[in-house]
């Protein structure tokens, strides 16, 4: 039997036929050599040929995938044609066009960055700080929520006239000092800034006693400064422990360190139970607050810090110190703020002994922000303390909240914040704005006195913010007030003349009211300019001259290159401390904020705490 016949007789193949090749066996029952060659030629890639027939189509062209492939090839071809037609001509090909394109893209990126910065920057308009230092507050009501952010003077003066701001009042020294607890927010790595604070405003006589002869520290005899931080990191625990043993002025909250994640509420919660201040050491005051709910709460005098009031140290030396009492005010402050303690205490003292101003808003008050739903355990009935003041003091920002560099809350408000369960559930966010929300949620929110201090609280002149201006003293405040009152008188006269002849007032500026405008001259500073980085008026000034150039209104700050040779004469004729304070103890700068560099902090310390009472020129003039 031949191989051929055996293959033909096999009825069932040993494996399935390959799907790649179908052999036509109609002409023969056995493959010949030519057939094998034909098979090999058909399987070779180079010899493979596609055939076309009207009667039979290839399997690969019968279904949908072929149509999709043709459509895909057509779309890709269209895109290539569009790219060559409309895009390729604009692609730079020469070195000059490539350089020009790179410059154009760089300019676009810079412009986009500036646009984003401008959009995110909340301070887009210069502020009329000169008006702040002249026009008093006509109301202590919470600002209505419908007020615009730049409605600086929304209330018309009662009876159309007013007297410029004057501080201190004549009876200041007859009022009993306020108890003030200042919590300076810090962190474990901030040792150098804490050391600067300890050696400057926390202990310096000019900060605690005031200008001139001062008051011997009586006013700040109930003012203490403590540093507040969260739990230090493991590698810092030993250093913080040693620092606390050395200075005894650190409060460590039982939370992780943070800024806007509940630290402020944790501080107020601690302060409601753990903040104490010295009692009244003197009884020669004609006015002392009565019937305060916390008057009789006392605690043994603690171990003192080196910068605690001198009268507390003297009381400790007696061997039988008086017990400490609850503070009238709890203050949250940043460590980049420079605080004049006597100035701060004097202003809080006046508010402690004062009362609310008459309500001035003629429109119905806008609905207050609604507090979150009452949580389980929160009381819906509020029993107010007897005569506890409700005071929220600070720099009012955009008619919404007191700026976080420093704000003060009276004891009753802190006690409520510490114990209200709703407040504890809403602690995340910008802490100064969150605090304002809490105050608006208070059961007696309409009775809270919002005390705005926008004249003596400002940013360091080199900070470049909208709140920056030169170091401020009462002598410059007087000069500013004269200019502002002159402007108001001139505009009022123009309005009266226009009404008399029934015409439009020429040169009239409407300052007051919800839509009052800001006069350009009211934002000017002799030291800084809005959105302009600070530069000395004259290059290469000596250090004492350059510091004098940072004083608002000083002749040194007005020098320019064309009269730089007058620097020595201007220095000789500068104002001494007695002239700057007009012979008063307080009335100048209260807080300087945004001190981002230690050198800036030292500049503020020298400008406010050092300097002679009388310059050589003033002494010579007195002698003659």
UniProtKB/TrEMBL annotation:
Q: Describe its membrane topology.
A: Single-pass type II membrane protein
Which InterPro entries does the record cross-reference, listed alphabetically?
Glyco_trans_31
Q: Where mainly found?
A: Golgi
Family note: Belongs to the glycosyltransferase 31 family.
Q: Which organism is it from?
A: Phanerochaete carnosa (strain HHB-10118-sp) (White-rot fungus)
Any GO CC annotation of this UniProt entry: Golgi membrane
User: What is a biological process (GO) this protein takes part in?
Assistant: 4,6-pyruvylated galactose residue biosynthetic process
Q: Which domain of life is it from?
A: Eukaryota
Cellular localization per UniProt = Golgi apparatus membrane
Q: Return the protein name.
A: Glycosyltransferase family 31 protein
- Read off the lineage from the record: Eukaryota, Fungi, Dikarya, Basidiomycota, Agaricomycotina
TM spans (from-to): 96-120
Kindly state which keywords UniProt assigns to this record, in alphabetical order.
Glycosyltransferase, Golgi apparatus, Membrane, Signal-anchor, Transferase, Transmembrane, Transmembrane helix
Q: Which GO terms describe its molecular function?
A: hexosyltransferase activity
């Amino acid at each position: 039997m031949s191989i051929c016949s055996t293959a033909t007789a096999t009825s069932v193949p040993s494996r399935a036929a390959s799907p790649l090749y179908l052999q036509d066996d109609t002409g023969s029952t056995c493959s010949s050599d030519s057939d094998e060659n034909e098979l090999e030629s058909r399987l070779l890639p180079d010899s493979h040929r596609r055939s076309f027939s009207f009667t039979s189509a290839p399997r690969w062209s019968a279904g949908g995938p072929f149509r999709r492939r043709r459509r895909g090839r057509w779309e890709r071809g269209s895109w290539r044609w569009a790219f060559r037609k409309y895009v390729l001509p604009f692609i730079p090909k020469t070195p000059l066009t490539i350089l020009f394109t790179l410059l154009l893209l760089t300019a676009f990126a810079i412009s986009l960055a500036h646009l984003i910065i401008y959009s995110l920057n909340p301070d887009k308009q210069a502020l009329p700080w000169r008006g702040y230092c002249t026009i008093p507050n006509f109301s202590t009501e919470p600002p209505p929520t419908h007020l615009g952010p730049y409605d600086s003077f929304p209330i018309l003066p009662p009876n159309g006239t007013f007297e410029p701001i004057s501080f201190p009042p004549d009876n200041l020294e007859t009022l009993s000092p306020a108890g003030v607890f200042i919590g300076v927010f810090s962190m474990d790595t901030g040792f150098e800034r804490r050391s600067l604070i300890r050696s400057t405003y926390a202990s310096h006589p000019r900060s605690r006693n005031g200008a001139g002869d001062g008051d011997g520290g009586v006013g700040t005899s109930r003012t203490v400064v403590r540093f507040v931080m969260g739990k230090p990191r493991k590698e810092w625990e030993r250093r913080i422990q040693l620092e606390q043993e050395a200075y005894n002025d650190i409060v460590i909250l039982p939370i992780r360190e943070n800024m806007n994640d509940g630290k402020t509420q944790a501080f107020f919660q601690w302060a409601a139970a753990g903040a104490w201040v010295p009692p009244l050491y003197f009884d020669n005051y004609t006015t002392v607050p009565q019937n305060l709910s916390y008057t009789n709460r006392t605690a043994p005098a603690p171990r003192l810090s080196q910068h605690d009031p001198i009268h507390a140290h003297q009381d400790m030396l007696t061997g039988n110190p008086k017990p400490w009492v609850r503070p009238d005010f709890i203050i949250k402050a940043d460590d980049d703020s420079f605080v004049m303690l006597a100035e701060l205490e004097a202003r809080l003292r006046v508010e402690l002994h004062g009362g609310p101003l008459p309500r001035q808003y003629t429109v119905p008050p806008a609905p207050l922000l609604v507090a979150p739903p009452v949580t389980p355990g929160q009381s819906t009935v509020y029993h107010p303390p007897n005569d506890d003041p409700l005071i929220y003091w600070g720099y009012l920002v955009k008619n919404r909240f007191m700026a976080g560099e420093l704000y003060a809350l009276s004891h009753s408000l802190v006690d409520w914040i510490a114990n209200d369960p709703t407040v504890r559930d809403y602690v995340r966010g910008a802490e100064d704005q969150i605090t304002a929300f809490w105050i608006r949620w208070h059961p007696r929110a309409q009775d809270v006195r919002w005390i705005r201090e926008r004249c003596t609280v400002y940013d360091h002149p080199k900070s470049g913010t909208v709140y920056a201006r030169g170091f401020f003293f009462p002598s410059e405040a007087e000069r500013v007030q004269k200019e502002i009152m002159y402007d108001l008188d001139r505009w009022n006269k123009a309005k009266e003349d226009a009404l008399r002849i029934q015409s439009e007032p020429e040169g009239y500026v409407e300052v007051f009211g919800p839509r009052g405008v800001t006069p350009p001259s009211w934002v000017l500073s002799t030291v800084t300019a809005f959105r302009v980085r600070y530069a000395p008026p004259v290059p290469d000034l000596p250090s004492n001259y350059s510091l004098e150039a940072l004083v608002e209104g000083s002749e040194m700050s007005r020098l320019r290159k064309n009269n730089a040779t007058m620097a020595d004469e201007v220095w000789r004729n500068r104002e001494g401390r007695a002239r700057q304070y007009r012979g008063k103890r307080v009335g100048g700068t209260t807080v300087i904020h945004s001190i981002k560099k230690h050198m800036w902090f030292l500049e503020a310390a020298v400008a406010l705490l050092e300097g002679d009472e009388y310059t050589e020129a003033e002494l010579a003039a007195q002698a003659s």
